[in-house]
Specification:
three-stranded antiparallel sheet, 48% strand, Rieske Iron-sulfur Protein, mainly beta
């Protein structure tokens, strides 16, 4: 049985804009794609810039990949896999996320 924790409500999200939430002691960047209604959750910590800033990054796409561009050095991170497109040795932690009755939920560890 999976446990899910509500971190915000759907109305708290803006399309193509990040939101930072605290989840089990970790900062998580949550992104909502307004065109497809897809949700993504990755670590807010930029491993290259060494700061919690990814929720302030720009969401977009490169080819088939839905990405966030770090606001610091502009590396692109795949929101599905966490992989850095320019430097694959760096990878973000990703989190299972869902929308349940208007609540945005992350899966508990």
């Amino acid at each position: 049985m999976s446990n899910w924790i509500t971190v915000c409500r759907q109305e708290d999200l803006s399309p193509s804009t990040g939101l930072c939430a605290l989840h089990q002691g970790e900062q998580v960047a949550i992104f909502f794609c307004g065109q497809t209604s897809d949700l993504y959750a990755v670590s807010n910590y930029d491993p290259i810039g060494e700061a919690n800033v990814l929720s302030r990054g720009l969401m977009g796409s490169l080819g088939d990949a839905v990405v966030v561009a770090s606001p610091l050095y502009k590396q692109h991170f795949n929101l599905k896999t966490g992989e850095c497109l320019e430097d694959p040795e760096h990878k973000l932690k990703t989190y299972p996320i869902r929308l349940e009755s208007g609540e945005v939920q992350l899966q508990a560890a």
